[in-house]
Design a protein that fits this description.
Layout (H helix, E strand, L loop, with lengths): L19 H11 L27 H12 L8 H15 L4 H10 L6 H17 L3 H14 L5 H7 L6 H8 L4 H10 L5 H12 L2 H9 L10 H11 L1 H7 L6 H12 L8 H4 L3 H11 L7 H16 L11 H14 L5 H4 L6 H21 L8 E6 L10 E6 L2 E2 H5 L8 H4 L12 E7 L4 H4 L1 E9 L2 E8 L2 H7 L5 E4 H13 L6 H15 L2 H4 L4 E7 L6 E8 L37 E8 L5 H14 L11
Length: 627
Amino acid sequence: MSATPGRPTPAPVPTEGPALYAYAESLRARAPHAPPPPGGHPLPDTARPPARRKGLSYADARTAVTDALLPYLGAADPVRAARAAERALGATGVVRAQAVHAAAAAIDLSDEPAARARTRFLARRLVRTGTTVPGVSAGLGLLNRLGEPEDVPYLRALGLLDGLLHPVDAALAPLDREAAGLVWLSHRDRDEELRGLVDALAAGDRAAVTDLLVGLPTGERRAGPEFSRRIAEAVGLARLVREEPDRPGLLAVAVWLLGRMTSSRDYHAEILRYGDAVELYGTIAAHAHRLPGDVDHRAPLLTLALDLHSGASHLLPWPPGRREELHRALLDFAAGKGDGDEEASASSADGAGQAARRRAEWIRRTVRQLRAVPMDPPRFRVEVAVADPGEPDVVETRFLIDGRPLVPEAFGPGPGDPPERLLDSGALRAGPEPREVRLAEAYCTEGCCGALYVTVRREGGHVVWSDWRRPRLLAAARGELPAYRFDAAAYDAEIARAERDHGWTWPARRTARLVAAGLRDRPELLTGRGLRLRWISTDFGEPETTVVAFSGPPLAAGGPERGAGPGADSGTGSGTGSGGGSAQGEGKTCYFQWRLPDDGTPPERRAADALRRLAAEDPRRYPELRA
């Protein structure tokens, strides 16, 4: 067959092999109650077309799949149509399951009942008798909207195979979230505790599931947001807690998992994807009095209260007044009898005691911050949210417009930018000229998954936020954002209030902000030595440590540093510490971190001392410097 000019030659259709469902069932029959190996069982060699169609973009691949499927939807003989459709799909040369699945899932389906029933039959034939990844993936894509409970066993079986997790999960989740959660977890590498839980789920041992769930380690970042949601779905967490709220340890694990779902460090706001979130929030609030009153149990409750106020949890489908009711209840339980003052004042030199003190101080600050929110908040409000230091996360700026959190609703794959970038810099002020401002960045980086930008401009007595910029696919999925108009006097007052509000800070962060302010006023302290400031903040994993990060040339061996400005220290010899040394070479740039652990000195004095030292001595000579 000759190729169409300018288009690649379609890949040959592979020799027909076993139906993938029958193949998966044969594997399960060998070990009926065992999950698959991480990543799934390998596919038979005949499951994929022998070669990918080269030069085909993702959009073109979806178009090719759609064109191959359309002639067979609603066919009078679905059995023959399924065989023909799989051959047509194989001829496209599209081998990626996700591309085929996405194309099939997006096809407009007829609303006519008889045609819809025939398309469902076609989808089932592809799923149950398909021999290739494209054929089965197309059937799974159609079942996204046409699936019924009778399809669940077939989907679970196919979920054992490598390469089909995404399409199986998309079709299975609307029908049986517990089954979908188990399939997802089965494909992940598992430590000993999770392996036991997955094995018990696969075997249907409900008693063991609860015991193993309670025994899961809940240390710092042990599970990411999606992992936490999948565990909750696989075990039926909302049902377990509803049935056994007094089961020792179960309620605390539920609080921890729900709190992890609120983290913005993922590609989605996982709390909004958890179908039982509203019910579980209510059950936790109703039984929070059963939890111990120490900081390790109160801090996760405060995480939930904070997210109900200004995070993604605010956007869940709440009945009128229910969110506010649960927020108040969780805030009261988290506050305890003295807002954490008794624990914050306790001194302990050991690591556990210091960690408890940090969490107690965070509880006190955050409870005070949330209780200071006006009963009738303004149309536009800016707040800073600091995460529980026991579960380190970013410090983010949050925006509430008409009472609703902007970033999770308009963006999603990451948090608001830090207050140092938006508030300390004056970026949100409305000046005479329009200004584009980045409000949020994807948790992986802007270069990977984008960011949220808005243009701020003043129009007479109003300040306008408009001309939004965010990833194209995100904008297409969520629709265009409106232009928001705020009373200029009220807007200016709110920005000024937010810039003055330092109640969310802690000593090391306050030190960082003061040092940054000093370097904005006196940039020559670094630039005069040929150095460039990168960032100033607190260490993510050690929030009691201020970090000044900068870059520049290494010190010259046996002489003054290159780029030294007037009055700079020009001592002889090589620099000391890992940031100095005798590395040479024009154009070489080194990266340095000056770390300042909190020693109890007031932040104002600590920052002033740091600035004086920068003026007196090249920081590349500091013994404590890290490169």
